[in-house]
Every structure is written in C-alpha cells, then in structure tokens.
Amino acid sequence: MNGNQPELFGVIFRQPYPFRLRANDVIRIDGRLARIIRVTESAAVVVMNRPAREFVTRFDKRVRLQPSPIIFRISANSETEIINSKPPKKRKVERRRP
C-alpha cells in the first residue's frame, strides 16, 4: 500500500427486507382487493379475481360464469394501500451438537 494513500473505510447498512410489499399481502387496487403472490427484485406478482358474469340464455335460463383470476406485475416498492401486512415470521435456529 502506498503511504500517501488514505485507507478506504465505509459502513454498509443492510435493511432486513428491502421491498415494501411481501408475499401474501392483500392490497387495494382501484377499489378492488388483490393478493401478492411473489416478490422479486424487479416486480411483485399480483392476482386479482374478476367479477362473475351473469346473463340469461335464449331459453330463459340464468347462467353465471366465474372467469379465471387475472395475474399482473407491479413494482415491489409501489405505494399501494396494504390491508393485512404481517411482520415476517422469525425462524428458529437449530444448534448443532458437537
């Protein structure tokens, strides 16, 4: 090391969980409830139920169809209203016996 060069010193702070949203959070988007399935570095995957469609057939029979849920992605740090955020569960640490 060169004697004229000062030492490099830095402090690194790590957040326990870097994203605002977590898996299994229920959020409100456009007045409808949705659930977070998975959170990655780039996005959070959200599933939202679609409303059921009801109509009457030509033979005067009522039919109700439930479409499959819609899956879309949003930012993992998006500012949405979280309904049931829970703190992360603490994991038990097993100690090995010598």
Which descriptors would you attach to this protein?
98 residues; mainly beta; 5-stranded antiparallel beta sheet; two-stranded antiparallel ribbon; 7 strands
Structure summarized in a few sentences:
This protein has 98 residues and is mainly β.
Q: Would you kindly provide a written description of the structure presented here, covering whatever features stand out?
A:
The two termini are 42 Å apart. The chain contains no helices and seven strands. It has 98 residues and is mainly β. The protein has a domain at 26-82. A five-stranded antiparallel sheet has the order 6-3-2-1-7, with no helix packed on it. The chain has strands spanning 26-29, 32-39, 44-48, 53-56, 62-65, 70-74, 81-82.
Characterize the largest beta sheet: strand count, sense, and whether it forms a barrel: 5 strands, antiparallel
Compute the average pLDDT: 82
Percent range of helical residues: under 10%
Molecular shape: elongated
> Can you write the helix and strand succession as a string?
EEEEEEE
Number of E strands: 7
Which sequence of strands runs across the widest sheet?
Answer: 6-3-2-1-7
Percent of residues in beta strands: 25-35%
> pLDDT under 50 segments (min length 5)?
none
Q: By helix and strand content, what is the structural category?
A: mainly beta
Q: What count of helical segments does DSSP give?
A: 0
Radius of gyration: 24 Å
Kindly, what is the distance between the CA atoms of the first and last residues, rounded to a whole number of angstroms? 42 Å
